[in-house]
Design brief:
CATH architecture of the largest domain: Orthogonal Bundle
Largest sheet: 3 strands, antiparallel
Number of helices: 6
Low-confidence stretches: 48-60
Mean pLDDT: 75
Order of helices and strands: HHHHEHHEE
Strand content: 5-15%
Structural class: mainly alpha
CATH class of the largest domain: Mainly Alpha
Distance between the termini: 33 Å
Radius of gyration: 17 Å
CATH topology of the largest domain: Arc Repressor Mutant, subunit A
Shape: elongated
Length: 143
């Protein structure tokens, strides 16, 4: 646990904020976590560190927004089929500047016919790539 805590402290110290776009909330959470003894970490109210606490539909069980949740919401809002730029535009409009490459890489990784190097487990994938940069919700797999 000490190595992970040190890593997080170094990230905050070196970069000031994580990933530049989602950073202020994540940075505040990391700072709060690293400054408290482990026994106090469980008592922290992490809800104040979420991007949009008033949008419970896209919150995962931990109370934090995930790129996967944002993509799923954007795809549903676009009628189940969209290209990468449409999804990026939707997320930017609703949540602010989230890194474009993070979104497009996640979309590729969330495709059932995506790269084998994807970091998402097979059962977590819900998109199908229909052409370059265009994806469709895979009905049988949509959460």
């Amino acid at each position: 646990m000490g190595v992970w805590k040190k890593f997080q402290e170094n990230v905050v110290e070196k970069y000031g904020e994580v990933y530049g776009k989602l950073g202020p909330e994540v940075t505040a959470a990391l700072k709060a976590w690293s400054e408290k003894p482990i026994s106090k970490v469980r008592d922290l109210d992490y809800t104040k560190y979420t991007l949009k606490p008033d949008v419970p539909a896209v919150l995962d069980p931990s109370g934090a927004l995930s790129v996967r949740s944002l993509i799923l919401e954007a795809m549903k809002a676009r009628g189940g089929e969209a290209n990468t730029q449409e999804v990026i535009g939707y997320i930017h409009e609703k949540y602010g500047p989230v890194n474009d490459n993070t979104i497009s890489t996640a979309m590729s990784d969330l495709a059932v016919n995506g790269p084998p190097s994807s970091t998402y487990r097979t059962e977590k994938r819900f998109l199908r790539r229909v052409s370059r940069g265009t994806y469709r919700l895979e009905e049988a797999r949509t959460p």
